[in-house]
Amino acid sequence: MTAPLIDPFHRPISYLRVSVTDRCDFRCVYCMSENMTFLPKKELLTLEELDRLCSTFVQLGVEKLRITGGEPLVRRDILKFFQSMTRHLDSGALKELTVTTNGSQLERFADDLYAAGVRRINLSLDTVDEQKFADITRWGRLPQVLRGIDAAQKAGLRIKINAVALKGFNEDELFTIAEWCAERDMDLTWIEVMPMGDIGNEQRLDQYWKLTDLRARLAEQYTLTDLAERTGGPARYVRIEETGQKVGFITPLSHNFCESCNRVRLTCTGELFMCLGQEDMADLRGPLRNHPESDAALEDAIRAAIRLKPKGHDFDYSRQSVDGRVSRHMSHTGG
Ligand code: SAM
Ligand code: SF4
Questions:
Q1: Which of 45-59, 120-134, 180-194, 304-318 has the weakest average pLDDT?
Q2: Which residues are CB-neighbours of 249 under 8 A, at least 6 positions away?
């Protein structure tokens, strides 16, 4: 029996997020600059290498795999990768295979994702106004995403909407977005904007809308009941009694959530980040490529990395400057 992955703070690591590409067909203003430079394709792990890496993690006790990016569904042949992970669902080793997407490609992938065993997806959407959507994503178009949502629901995929709370941008849509999600029977999670990647200090402070404020505003109109439910992840949930829907808050800045962290993140070049908010990482591409004959070296490298998982991140806006910032873009590590 293989020993499970346990970090120095006694947290079992059962959740792997995998960024399968750093590329994207959108350019969300808080995530990327308009003229991002992407990695040369040869730097990327092949789909076979991603399979071997993910399968090793599953072997070591990872039960939940989230495929993200960049935009995961723009990676060529990505469906084959999902289909190859189905065997771990079938064996029972993997409990959940899921994806975080901007929804642009869902119309064509929804049925196949369901067939591969995906049941729930996170879809990022910060506004339901067509013009504002075009503004915030620069290259995205809302009707295309809405068609993707329809296709996903028709295929049987459960959708959770992730919205980044942005001051002066979607504050006025607080209730509209909640009601829009409720009408479509979708859960909703608000995320505080994080200082990832250099897009300018001033801009970050301007964007930051504290979720405690958002929640207080929501409570002016709705009855909110705190839910005890935690998914081992950063979100805290309330139920809106009037609509029955669940709303989550991910508050890396106003409330640190690291004590129950069960996850690590793999980039598309095989770097393993033990914490989203720290620079430390372990290279897994070396042990993967240098030892094609056996996974022993890879397993050792993974275990050694988990022993270095830090207690938490250091993001902090409280001193009116962005402290604890990390230079990577979210699209590199995978949100
Ligand atoms: N392209 C996919 C998408 O947008 O869902 C997956 C990758 S994207 C990097 C994952 C999530 O990170 C999205 O929900 C996005 O809104 C969020 N994100 C990107 N940059 C962020 C930032 N600086 N702070 C907070 N969330 C961010
Ligand atoms: Fe692309 Fe997602 Fe980043 Fe937007 S948030 S630019 S959709 S990776």
A1: 304-318
A2: 189, 190, 211, 214, 215, 235, 236, 237, 238
Tokens of 277: 């908010």
- State the closest ligand 1 atom to the C-alpha of 195, by its place in the atom list counted from 1: 23
Which pLDDT band holds residue 313 (cuts at 50, 70, 90)?
low
Q: Which residues pair with 237 in a beta bridge?
A: 227, 248
CA distances for 151 relative to 87, 108, 154, angstroms: 25, 8, 5
The alpha carbon of 30 and the centre of ligand 1 are apart by a number of angstroms equal to 8
Distance of CA 91 from the midpoint of ligand 2 (Å): 33
DSSP type of residue 2: P
Report the predicted TM-score, pTM, of the whole model to 2 decimal places: 0.91
- 15-333 CATH fold: TIM Barrel (3.20.20)
Q: DSSP class of residue 43?
A: G
Asked whether 268 and 19 are in contact (CB, 8 A), the reply is yes
Q: What string of DSSP letters covers 166-212?
A: BTTTTGGGHHHHHHHHHHTT-EEEEEE---BS-S-HHHHHHHB--HH
Q: Distance from the CA of 133 to the center of ligand 2, in angstroms?
A: 12
**DSSP 8-state class, residue 232:** S
What are the tens digits of pLDDT across the range 98-129? 999 999 999 999 999 999 999 999 999 999 99
* Per-residue pLDDT reduced to its tens digit, 124-172: 999 999 999 999 999 999 999 999 999 999 999 999 999 999 999 999 9
